[in-house]
Design a protein that fits this description.
Distance between the termini: 19 Å
Strand order of the largest sheet: 1-2-3-24-23-25-21-22
Strand content: 35-45%
Helix content: under 10%
Number of domains: 2
Largest sheet: 8 strands, antiparallel
Structural class: mainly beta
Radius of gyration: 21 Å
Number of helices: 5
Oligomer: single chain
Shape: elongated
Length: 397
């Protein structure tokens, strides 16, 4: 095992074993297919009235699109995953809590990784600030758990995946096996586990259902824990290597019991992941629910950020569309966003957070200076967001 989570319980998140996606629909393409030699790709001229192209780094191309009707302005990062590039899910701190601008998130990547470009990613909550609505995986560590919404994920072999992630875990004791389906996603009804990466106290309702799992002995595989009651004075925050088991379905576990915890994500093993909503394309076809998911105001004309992959997973497309600016760019509906991704060649595509959060940041290949490519719609400029997808010019991220 050459990579594992700090708590060494998400054994299936490590880059070991077979580690391949196990579903046909929305699954990651095989490494052989993804790395097949392809000619250099150029966008079809029909996607816009004007296309300006910049080479940011080997394997990382920026396209600026203008459509006169609307008008509409969009920007595309076209990433060749067969080149020496890596995709990172980036948060402004070590836990799920916190907001930062996409610019700050790009600039926070260590210099040796050569961060080239970034776009904002998942929707987030404002209290606690910046917690992603869906799953976020950073270097194999799950900061926030999945919900029933799709994610953009990258595995250890740089294969993209767009689809649902689920947690399957078990707490094992002398009393039997206790399954759980949540990790770093507290629920007062279902059973789940919280670790220090969650970074926020449990609310009162969930706290009433919690047990502490205190680490016992060496960091062996599997790690052993001792069950303890949560003191009334406890602030509901997981710290260090201590876990918290939350939910009313705790079975017959008692204080003093020794347990092991094992969990995995399915149907693939992500090294990086961010959430989005809704799904836009499946097998190059616009998903019918783009016309019904979310409020009418959400489905209407708005600034957009979206992601997709093309050419059997070799090309990752990150797209931002400016909006809410008459005479400059009016934005797109969810359906129009899906159509643009399809026209760009995407087979699978996902809508990310948009509106005032939409931002694309790039590093100038000559000067090295970082600048905002698009024109954010907020009057105050670039908005602090929950997380970002960062593209680096390093094979190791």
């Amino acid at each position: 095992m050459n990579r594992a989570l700090p708590l060494v319980v998400f054994v299936a998140l490590s880059a070991c074993g077979t580690g391949a996606a196990r579903v046909a629909t929305g699954s990651a393409p095989s490494a052989a297919t993804a790395l097949r030699a392809l000619p250099r790709y150029t966008l079809p001229r029909t996607v816009a009235d004007s296309i300006t192209t910049h080479q940011l780094a080997p394997g990382i191309t920026q396209h600026d699109l203008v459509r006169n009707a609307g008008p509409l302005r969009a920007h595309v990062l076209d990433i060749d995953l067969a080149q020496c590039v890596s995709i990172r899910a980036v948060k402004g701190g070590p836990t799920a809590v916190g907001r930062a601008t996409t610019t700050a998130l790009l600039q926070g990547v260590p210099a040796e990784a050569r961060a080239i470009a970034a776009v904002n990613a998942d929707f987030f909550v404002f209290a606690p600030p910046g917690v992603p609505v869906n799953a976020m995986v950073v270097d194999g560590q799950l900061l926030s758990g999945p919900i029933k919404r799709p994610v953009l994920a990258i595995d250890a072999e740089r294969r993209p995946f767009i689809g649902l992630l689920t947690v399957a875990g078990t707490v094992v004791s002398a009393r039997g096996r206790l399954p759980f389906t949540f990790w770093n996603r507290p629920s007062a009804t279902g059973l789940g586990v919280i670790d220090a990466a969650w970074g926020q106290p449990l609310d009162t309702l969930v706290r009433r259902t919690a047990l502490l799992l205190l680490p016992s002995g060496a960091r062996a595989q599997p790690r052993r824990y001792v069950v303890a009651a949560l003191p009334v004075s406890h602030d509901g925050l997981a710290r260090g290597d201590t876990l918290m088991l939350v939910g009313r379905s705790r079975g017959a576990l008692q204080s003093g019991d020794t347990v092991t915890v094992d969990a995995t994500l399915a149907p693939m093993i992500p090294m990086q992941a961010v959430g989005g909503h809704p799904l836009l394309l499946r097998d190059s076809v616009i998903v019918p629910t783009v016309d019904t998911e979310g409020a009418e105001s959400f489905r209407g004309l708005n600034p957009r950020t979206a992601a997709g992959y093309a050419d059997s997973g070799r090309r990752l497309l990150l797209v931002v569309i400016d909006g809410r600016q008459p005479g400059y760019s009016v934005g797109t509906t969810v359906r129009e966003t899906a159509a643009l991704l399809r026209d760009l060649g995407a087979r699978e595509a996902l809508n990310l957070d948009g509106g005032g959060s939409t931002a694309m940041i790039v590093r100038d290949p000559t000067s090295g200076k970082v600048h905002t490519v698009n024109k954010p719609s907020d009057a105050t400029g670039e908005r602090p967001v929950g997380n970002a997808v960062v593209v680096t010019g390093s094979c190791r991220g």
